[in-house]
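Dear support,

I submitted the protein below through the web form. The confirmation email said the job was done, but the results page showed an empty box. After a refresh the structure appeared. I'm attaching both so you can tell me whether what I see now is the final result or a partial one.
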Amino acid sequence: HTTRVRPRVQRLLSSALTQAMYLDKLHPAEVVNAAVALIKKHGRKEAGFVNAVMRRCLEAGPESTKAGPSPLKCLPSILRNRFVENFGHDRAVQLAELFLSQSPLTFRSCTDISQAELDAVSAVRLEPHFDVGNCCFYRCDDGRALINSGLLSDNKIYIQNPATAAAPALFDLNGSERVLDLCAAPGGKSLLLAERLGPEGSLVAADRSEKRQELTRDNLRRFGYDHQVVIADALRPTFEPGSFDAILLDVPCSNTGVMHRRPDAAWRFTENSLREVVKLQKEILAAAAPLVAPGGQLVYSTCSIESEENTRQFDDFMQTHPEFKLVKQLQLLPENVYDGAGAALLVKDLQ
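What the results page shows now:
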């Protein structure tokens, strides 16, 4: 005999068991009590059922909550189908497993750090298989020790994933360029660009969000940079045509490359939302193109692994803007400690 469980009970059990088993700051008994109290509004029988199921599952441990042999079942069907179609079943399973895993803490050094300081926070040097320039990245499994160490407060490190550095590393800069980061906030990539510029170089960090630009300004100032931080709409930039030697477009995207850190992205993803963000990206690219000086560089980047937002996007851009040529491109799929990302370096003709 099989008892049909109401959808509201299924949803409650799913969220409550996840909290009880995987959130360290919550005591499992408190979660059980809260879940029972919530469902009791619908009837004592359902409350008793929730209480019994949760306590039995917690006694058995996390293994008891596995819905099936494949972690793909944790993904919305639209992403599950896209991942299998685009990357194959085995790779799709790996992406789903990453989605279920805890996001690792990674940082890069912004100055010299002694081995003793690294050992004190259990930091391990990472060796990315893609170009991150001169950056040194580390994984840290003891976030509390890192916060208490003073490395953050002394501005010796910056919390960042290695994949973040891949797009800025595509630029070929000598340090004297006029650089624009057109979708800058909160400033992580702006900081990477500032570090590559010399006294003769200049950086403009632009973004439409005044609130988020406060973070960009704070990030640059904390590390000793006084580059210009402005409020500007990437769709309607007010800069003069040809006024920049290098432009970074880290455009809004679907975030499918960082779902393990932003799980909400998986549940916000729809075919319609993808079409809308692709349209926005296309418009930002078209608006930025005139700002690039002849012979200048344009780096387009996303934290998405969807081809519509990466290879198809800049291929379409070059069809309508033949003055730009593709020099480098990369597509990073999420793996282990690395986020997913896409990027392309486009160079404008001299004439």
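Response: this is the final, complete result; the empty box was a page-load delay. The first helix runs from residue 7 to 22.
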